[in-house]
Write a structure and sequence with these properties.
Blueprint lengths: L1 E7 L7 E2 L9 H9 L7 H8 L6 E3 L11 E2 L5 E8 L5 E8 L5 E4 L15 H19 L2 H14 L1 H4 E14 L10 H4 L8 E7 L14 H15 L5 E9 L2 E8 L6 E10 L10 E9 L2 E9 L7 H14 L1 E2 L8 H6 L6 E2 L5 E7 L8 H9 L3 H5 L3 H7 L9 E2 L33 E7 L5 H6 L13 E9 L10 E12 L1 H14 L4 E4 L2 E3 L10 E8 L5 E5 L8 E4 L2 E4 L4 E8 L6 H4 L10 E14 L5 E12 L6 H7 L9 H11 L12 H9 L13 H13 L8 H9 L5 H8 L6 H16 L3 H23 L1
Parallel strand pairs: 8-9, 14-17, 23-30
Antiparallel strand pairs: 1-5, 2-4, 3-7, 5-6, 6-7, 8-21, 9-11, 10-11, 12-13, 13-14, 15-16, 17-19, 18-19, 20-21, 22-24, 24-28, 25-27, 25-29, 26-28, 29-30
Length: 799
């Protein structure tokens, strides 16, 4: 690898835990194993690690160290950019990091396309941002509540994968029919453009005369007649289905959708609020219908506010009352998972909650000008002058006025009231009548949800498909008056081009499934099969495997102790692995004379002989919320009849020609004395040691091919396994403290031992002295073996 640049981190970065990065692909974890000395390293493997989609910081340790979580002070790190040529011939680049103690780390960067991408003044900030981001994600995923929040956020973030845009053309219209019968030709209003509208939202005011009881009660026959008349007109332009028809006294709200969209409409909720007589009467007020079309929500409000020039405050109050009192109480979760996620903490739905609100009706706002000035401006078509005195415009411009955050299209048509019922022109009254000033009383306003404001909608155009605000857009296409006679009002329409969201159920199910799988425990066991060296009394071989959490959530594991045979021990037996971390699992042979292996007749031996028997065991590692892992352990059991016996038992079963010396010990001492002096080597292969035990009756014939170290280790293991120990009591303590290379001192201590221990100890120490010629390592090993058995026995008995 070529070193391009070395820079010192200047940022003051606190010590952080670095080996908990939430990674999804196993590549980063394999890289950790390689740097920990558990797997070989290659360019190919580094290339595969680089292709993973996360950043990781890992440490290179000595093979003998445990792989565990550590802390690093990033204030002392140096960042080095390195590269190598990948399989495709293109260079791949990595960041290497080293601290003052020469610990080495590897930091992968998916965006580092060239060495120049790492600026000298930026690595500290970049490194901290990567670590802080991943650390926060790990901390979030460590709790059940955090995992739920993470899953919810992932589902929302991945909506572009299962939610696609769908274009809808919405026609909204309002007309105060003044209590007239449904006889007028509506084609100039509802079908003038021969346009394929997807939605019709129509508000009719005064479908019944608001006089006498007609101002207090609802005559539903009037609403049915007007509904049938409108449906008749719509049949001439397409196939439409009525999804909302609601009448409150004189107010009628109708919503039609094209038949092809019928199945996409759900969650229709309609309610009403009266603001008329005693602030409750239905002669004034509003009907609101909320619905979901595909995955976008709409609310259409048809209203009739307080009349008369001077009642501006009452109209503003009526609007506020409608906005406050209209509440859709059914649970949104019944209708849309997306809506439920967006408003999960709300128990009710209000008008502003919807993606698009269209507010239409006879709002009754007037012009604050004398009649003569209004008539003069109307004749001159000077709409700009008139609109400066429009009460609704003034309210829209006020920071605390009615219809806050609502918008209205540009008015470029004459006032819609007070018109002649059956001809062009205005009915402003005579000298004997109360004058009626023309005004734009019939209006249509709209409002999109605050998350779709203009600024963010404009910015989102370059943000790509992931931007949430691209899921809904609404633009006004036209806003105009229509010349339909029969009332002193003229109908008004506003057409909207809407980009809504369409849900693909199959794709959403796939996304949900992927997110769910990410939250499942992913524990890997490498290797899943280990081979222990030959198991025997006095020797405890150890092998290890690595448990790796390759998921993004913590994993709880526990070794099933009922499946662990009594000749094996496993550490640790349980624990919790943070995301993207590893732990070394040690398996140790811990054979004792009480082991069940010695009770099995299939493993028995006779006389001064030994035999090896194959051993297999399956260890089960239970994983919470996942299938258990199985570790296969293979070994062999070397059963030596004299191992683990007390000195007295050995003398009884294996007497020799010399008093107080059992045959196995005497044989090994004789063989050692026949060999030339040499150095003691504790790393002698186990195969040679096991071979000596198995062939001990015939060893005298092959002394020339035996090593002194192998024979010495066999002698030590017999002594170490000796029940009761060879040297015990005060003598054991003195042996451990004295100069064991001095025969005079050792013999003086040995004299305190009773027979037969004294004779055996004297023989063994003398043999070691002659064979290894004062080799300190041999003497220390002998002293340890001669006293360790005593200590372990006392500990076992005490326990």
């Amino acid at each position: 690898m070529e070193e391009f640049r070395s820079v010192q981190l200047e940022d003051s970065v606190e010590s952080v835990r670095f080996e908990q990065d939430a990674v999804e692909a196993p590549g980063n974890l394999k890289l950790k194993r390689r740097l920990a000395g558990m797997e070989p390293f290659s360019n190919n493997s580094m290339q595969s690690s680089k292709e993973s989609s996360k950043h990781s910081v890992v440490t290179e340790k000595d093979e003998a160290e445990d792989v565990s979580l550590r802390k690093v002070d990033f204030r002392s790190l140096r960042v080095i950019t390195t590269s190598f040529e990948g399989e495709n011939g293109r260079p791949s680049h990595f960041l290497s990091i080293a601290d003052e103690n020469a610990q080495r780390f590897t930091f992968e960067s998916r965006n580092l396309s060239s060495p120049g991408d790492l600026q000298p003044n930026s690595p500290g900030r970049d490194l901290r941002s990567f670590i802080d981001r991943d650390q926060k994600e790990i901390e979030l995923l460590a709790t059940a509540q955090g995992r739920r929040f993470w899953a919810q956020q992932q589902i929302l973030d991945r909506r572009p994968e299962y939610v696609t845009p769908v274009s809808l053309k919405i026609f909204s219209g309002t007309w105060n029919v003044g209590g007239s019968e449904p006889e007028a030709d509506l084609s100039d209003w509802l079908s003038a453009d021969n346009c394929d509208y997807d939605v019709f939202a129509i508000g009719i005011e005064e479908v019944q005369p608001l006089v006498g009881m007609g101002a207090m009660t609802t005559d539903s026959s009037k609403g049915r007649d007007w509904t049938a008349h409108i449906e008749k007109t719509l049949k001439t332009v397409g196939d439409y289905v009525c999804v909302c028809a609601r009448q409150m006294v004189g107010i009628l709200l109708l919503v039609f959708v094209r038949a092809k969209h019928e199945n996409a409409v759900k969650g229709v909720m309609t309610t009403e609020v009266g603001t008329g007589f005693m602030y409750k009467g239905g002669n004034k007020g509003a009907i609101a219908s909320r619905m979901q079309i595909y995955e976008s929500t709409f609310c259409f409000v048809a209203c009739h506010l307080a009349a008369h020039q001077e009642n501006v405050s009452r109209r503003n109050q009526d609007f506020s009352e409608v906005l406050r009192r209209i509440v859709f109480t059914e649970e949104k979760a019944q209708y849309s998972n997306l809506s439920a996620l967006l408003f999960a903490n709300e128990s009710t739905i209000t008008i502003p909650d919807q993606d698009l609100v269209v507010w239409l009706g006879d709002l009754n706002y007037r012009l604050d000008l004398p009649l003569e000035d209004v008539v003069r401006s109307v004749e001159a078509e000077d709409w700009e002058t008139l609109l400066k005195h429009d009460q609704l415009n003034q309210a829209l411009k006020s920071a605390h006025g009615a219809f806050l955050n609502f918008k209205e299209g540009k008015i470029s048509f004459p006032p819609t009231y007070k018109c002649n019922k059956h001809e062009v022109g205005y009915d402003v009254g005579t000298e004997s009548q109360t004058p009626r000033t023309p005004a734009w009383t019939d209006r249509i306003l709209w409002k999109i949800h605050e998350k779709y404001d203009e600024k963010t909608s404009t910015d989102s155009a370059t943000d790509g498909a992931e931007n949430f605000r691209l899921q809904f857009l609404a633009e006004l296409d036209s806003y105009r008056r229509h010349e339909v006679f029969g009332s002193d009002h003229r109908p008004v329409s506003a057409v909207f081009n809407v980009t809504a969201s369409k849900l693909d159920q199959d794709k959403r199910a796939n996304v949900f499934s992927e997110i769910h799988r990410k939250l499942l425990p992913k524990l890997d066991l490498t290797p899943h099969r280990i081979n222990l060296e030959m198991v025997q009394l006095g020797y405890h071989p150890v092998e290890s495997t690595v448990l790796s959490n390759e998921g993004i959530v913590p994993v709880e594991f526990e070794v099933d102790l009922e499946e662990v045979p009594d000749w094996l021990t496993v550490e640790p037996v349980q624990g919790t692995l943070p995301a993207a971390s590893v732990v070394k699992l040690s398996v140790t042979a811990n054979l004792t004379r009480n082991s069940e292996l010695f009770e099995d007749r299939g493993y028995s031996v006779n006389g001064l002989s030994s035999q090896a028997f194959p051993l297999t065991s399956k260890l089960k590692i239970n994983v919470r919320n996942a299938f258990p892992k199985t570790l296969d352990v293979e070994s062999a059991f070397l059963n030596c009849s004299f191992l683990g016996s007390s000195l007295e038992t050995m003398l009884e079963q294996y007497p020799s020609e010399e008093e107080h010396l059992p045959e196995p010990l005497l044989l090994l001492c004789k063989l050692l004395s026949r060999l030339d002096p040499s150095k003691f080597d504790e790393t002698t292969p186990r195969e040679e040691i096991s071979s000596i035990f198995i062939n001990i009756p015939t060893l005298g014939e092959s002394v020339d091919i035996l090593s002194a170290s192998a024979l010495g280790i066999c002698l030590l293991e017999i002594i170490r396994s000796m029940d009761g120990g060879l040297i015990f009591g005060d003598a054991a303590a003195e042996i451990q403290l004295c100069d064991v290379t001095n025969p005079a001192i050792v013999n003086k201590i040995i004299e305190y031992l009773p027979e037969p221990n004294r004779t055996v100890a004297r023989k063994v120490f003398a043999t070691f002295n002659s064979t290894f010629e004062g080799d300190l390592s041999a003497w220390e090993a002998l002293a340890s073996a001669a006293t360790a058995s005593t200590c372990s026995t006392q500990t076992r008995l005490t326990g």
